[in-house]
Design goal:
With 349 residues, the protein is α/β, with parallel strands linked by helices. 35% of the residues lie in helices and 15% in strands. It folds into three domains: 116 residues, D-Maltodextrin-Binding Protein, domain 2; 100 residues, 3-Layer(aba) Sandwich (D-Maltodextrin-Binding Protein, domain 2); 86 residues, no CATH class. A five-stranded mixed sheet has the order 10-9-11-8-12, with helices on both faces. It starts with a helix and ends in a 26-residue tail after the last helix. The chain binds glutathione (GSH).
Length: 349
């Protein structure tokens, strides 16, 4: 036991009401949606209903005018552009880590564009389809700089704040067991409350996806007072999710993501894609819908990628606009053509 042992455990006992057993999300197995049902429903309604985070800077958060902004938000807007040529034909529904899956299963939302990790059980028994990996992430820990902790290995005996219904909660248990680290979980459902618990020293560390830590740190009065420890203890491939069985909707989301990557790969930006008709490269002609009828194959306008990229930018532009302000680097989310980059789109043809 280290510096954390006694004081930490006493604090944890004080917060006993907040401490729950490590739990799995209360979601049931769900029958698959009929193919095309979601797309038909969205078209009939005239609006996409997108499940997003309750508020994570850079990913999904209403601005001072109440307009939703962020990386995940742009994925929702891209779908609305493909379907309605209008980025505002979206109703954003905030979902917590715990209630996001029931929201999707019950049909309350059409899709999730929300830091949700692709796992086997979510893909199968929860009845979902992950449509790609829009953001490669991993789980980390954040502590107050004043603690002087430099490594997660020093967290033996610590109280650790975590949200339920997450891979975070499961990884934390696995990691602690594998590394023989004792910890006291403080499990709190609402993001704001879990962050407040960390800020008010009810826990020594806060753990979630590193992107979530960066987003939380960026909005603190003094970000430098918080340190993200170097250990990344898991793989968290995040991406948009739909209900199982609705392949036409899943295909559309999948190829929007690949189209955004392809635009970046081809050097087409929000500023240039509108003038790309004269670009003789066959790949460009297909992406902008002047050959190949690829949009039609997805049930949308052949110019859907021009409409999306001209308004939102390509993948790199969406990334930089939303995530540079919170200090997130491209890292593994660089294109595959850059060393260390994992973002790769199959042929857009
Ligand atoms: N990627 C993980 C964690 C996702 C997650 O929900 N993280 C928290 C902390 S960043 C979050 O977004 N909470 C927002 C909320 O519950 O409103 C998962 O899919 O289980």
């Amino acid at each position: 036991m280290t510096q954390f042992s006694r004081a930490s455990f006493l604090r944890a006992i004080g917060a006993a009401a907040m401490v729950a057993a490590v739990s799995l999300p209360a979601v049931a197995q769900q029958p698959a949606a009929p193919t095309g049902a979601t797309l038909d429903a969205i078209r009939a309604r005239g609006t996409l209903i997108c499940g997003v985070n309750t508020g994570l800077a850079g990913f999904a958060q209403p601005d001072s005018q109440g307009v939703w902004r962020g990386f995940d938000v742009d994925y929702c807007r891209a779908v609305a552009i493909a379907l309605f040529n209008d980025p505002d034909k979206v109703r954003f529904v905030p979902t917590t880590a715990q209630n996001r899956f029931t929201a999707l299963q019950s049909g309350e939302v059409d899709m999730l564009a929300r830091n949700t990790t692709w796992t086997l059980s979510r893909d199968t028994s929860l009845g979902f389809d992950f449509t790609g990996i829009s953001f490669y992430d991993g789980q980390g820990f954040m502590v107050k700089a004043s603690l002087g902790v430099r490594s997660a290995r020093e967290l033996n005996g610590a109280t650790i704040c975590v949200q339920p219904g997450t891979t975070t909660e499961q990884n934390l248990t696995d990691w602690a067991r594998a590394n023989r680290i004792q910890f006291q979980p403080v499990v709190i459902e609402r993001l704001e409350e879990v962050v407040n618990a960390y800020l008010s020293n009810r826990c020594d560390a806060y753990t979630t996806d590193v992107s979530g830590l960066a987003a939380t740190r960026a909005v603190q009065a003094r970000p430098a007072d918080h340190v993200i420890l170097p250990e990344v203890i898991s793989k968290e491939p995040l991406g948009p999710v739909v209900r199982h069985g609705d392949q036409r909707f899943a295909d559309l989301l999948r190829w929007i993501h690949f189209g955004l990557l392809t635009a970046e790969e081809l050097g087409l930006t929000s500023q240039t894609i509108g003038q790309a008709a004269g670009d003789a490269r066959p790949d460009v002609q297909r992406l902008i819908g002047r050959s190949g009828d690829l949009g039609q194959m997805l049930g949308v306008d052949n110019a859907f990628m021009v409409n999306i990229v001209s308004r939102l930018g390509n993948y790199g532009q969406i990334f930089e606009r939303n995530l540079q302000p919170i200090g997130v680097q491209r890292g593994p989310n660089a294109l595959w053509t850059t060393p260390g980059g994992l973002q790769y789109a199959p042929p857009f043809r």
